[in-house]
């Protein structure tokens, strides 16, 4: 009987560019476009500069050769992966696989572009490895059935590392045996704590890049003969038992892995229409819809209903969520998201400005928000949200978004992704640079990894 990691390795070794249907390749290119547009937007924020300064300090004067997106700087391969992953995930605006509750693109595209650059891989190689990494990471994430968040682990960092390992293994030409060892090695490297929720710390931002560098390290060690455990996922101290407890039932994962190359989880990846935690989107949208019919001074009480499985993430601790101390707390706050939607009719990048999340009027609205579990939620398939506003005259206004925008039955179209990319990249780049970079990504098979990252390392700034 093969272990799960052996089954994954076997599927990976048989995976080719020609296996991927045309429409899946097309969607993959658009997911990559979305990710890199966000990366450009992130370069304006303090967290990006401080992270780059730290990584440059680690090089001790030894320059790397892999470009950082939008920052006209090169770093060693693994450090470039960390930095580019941070830029893609740093605004919490990147895509999410709902069942896996994982930002898989942020880690996988980071790993394949950095490693691909170092090894001069073709655009077809990059796209193939990216799609494979997504197919693995999303299935592994879904196997946890939402439980990683409940015990304080962030799947994007933890599970993302395994998807990246398979993608890296494909690029490096690992044998089936080496790829199995690489997954076992990653088991000792992968990490991602949810403790950032307590105070809005920056650590979540770095999880995808860290997952990518774990994978690059593990795959390279395995290629050179390093031995890792075989029962990476189902073992007595494997991934699921060690993180979710020995009583967690790992059901159906082998069968799901068998569907790689037959069904396509990449098509179920949800694009974010709002720069905040996906768990807040439906509530923010519901509040925005109520905005036009509402006089703010008449609000007496607000109830926000969300899935029980997200309350620890976006509703607790209550005081922090009602008065966010920084942009990251604001992005993970139901009270702030609802207050912003009710006041302005939208939640955009400007909601992450200090002037916005410290605004007295918005905070006064947030103070009135009471969050509660929604027994009708279909979580984790959908991240629903309902907002009920009680007015001082006793009347009620309410709106429910049972299916969040971007979910499989309410997808963001490829055309809408292009608009989002151009808006995000347009925060720092002139139109000519945006056109050039968009063409590079959307025609990735005609280029190689060095064309891609060299073309994105800088652009004509505004």
From TrEMBL:
SUPFAM superfamilies: 2-methylcitrate dehydratase PrpD. GO terms for molecular function: lyase activity. Pfam families: MmgE_PrpD_C (PF19305), MmgE_PrpD_N (PF03972). Residues 7-248 form the MmgE/PrpD N-terminal domain. Residues 275-445 form the MmgE/PrpD C-terminal domain. InterPro entries: MmgE/PrpD_sf, MmgE/PrpD_sf_1, MmgE/PrpD_sf_2, MmgE_PrpD, MmgE_PrpD_C, MmgE_PrpD_N. Belongs to the PrpD family. This is 2-methylcitrate dehydratase. It comes from Advenella kashmirensis W13003. The lineage of its organism: Bacteria, Pseudomonadati, Pseudomonadota, Betaproteobacteria, Burkholderiales.
């Amino acid at each position: 009987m093969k272990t799960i990691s052996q089954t994954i390795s076997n599927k990976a070794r048989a995976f080719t560019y020609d296996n991927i249907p045309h429409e899946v390749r097309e969607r993959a290119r658009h997911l990559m476009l979305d990710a890199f547009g966000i990366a450009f937007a992130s370069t304006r924020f303090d967290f990006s500069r401080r992270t780059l300064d730290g990584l440059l300090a680690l090089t001790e004067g030894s320059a790397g050769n892999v470009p950082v997106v939008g920052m006209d700087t090169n770093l060693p391969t693994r450090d470039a992966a960390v930095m580019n992953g941070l830029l893609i995930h740093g605004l919490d605006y990147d895509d999410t696989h709902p069942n896996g509750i994982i930002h898989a693109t942020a880690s996988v595209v980071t790993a394949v572009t950095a490693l691909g650059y170092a090894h001069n891989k073709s655009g077809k190689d990059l796209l193939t490895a990216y799609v494979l990494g997504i197919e693995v990471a999303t299935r592994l994430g879904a196997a946890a059935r939402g439980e990683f968040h409940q015990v304080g682990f962030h799947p994007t960092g933890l599970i993302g590392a395994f998807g990246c390992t398979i993608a890296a293994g494909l690029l490096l030409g690992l044998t089936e045996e080496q790829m199995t060892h690489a997954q076992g090695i990653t088991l000792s490297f992968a990490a991602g704590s949810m403790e950032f929720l307590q105070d809005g710390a920056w650590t979540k931002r770095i999880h995808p890049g860290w997952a990518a560098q774990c994978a690059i390290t593990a795959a390279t060690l395995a290629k050179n003969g390093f031995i890792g455990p075989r029962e990476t996922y189902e073992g007595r101290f494997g991934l699921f038992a060690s993180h979710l407890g020995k009583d967690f039932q790992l059901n159906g994962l082998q069968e799901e892995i068998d569907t790689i190359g037959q069904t396509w989880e990449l098509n179920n990846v949800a694009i974010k229409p709002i720069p905040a935690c996906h768990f807040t989107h439906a509530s923010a949208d519901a509040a925005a819809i109520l905005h036009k019919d509402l006089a703010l001074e008449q609000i007496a009480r607000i109830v926000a209903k969300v899935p029980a499985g997200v309350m620890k993430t976006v509703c607790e601790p209550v005081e922090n969520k009602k008065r966010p101390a920084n942009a990251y707390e604001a992005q993970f706050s139901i009270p702030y998201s609802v207050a912003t939607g009710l006041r302005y009719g939208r939640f955009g990048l400007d909601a992450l400005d200090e002037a916005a999340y410290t605004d007295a009027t918005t905070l006064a609205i947030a103070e009135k928000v009471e969050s509660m579990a929604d027994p009708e939620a279909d979580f984790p398939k959908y991240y629903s949200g309902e907002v009920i506003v009680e007015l001082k005259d006793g009347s009620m206004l309410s709106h429910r978004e049972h299916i969040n925008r971007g979910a499989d039955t309410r997808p963001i179209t490829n055309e809408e992704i292009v608009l989002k990319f151009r808006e995000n990249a347009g925060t720092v780049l002139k139109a000519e640079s945006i056109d050039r970079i968009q063409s590079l990504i959307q025609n990735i098979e005609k280029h190689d990894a060095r064309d891609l990252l060299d073309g994105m390392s800088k652009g004509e700034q505004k």
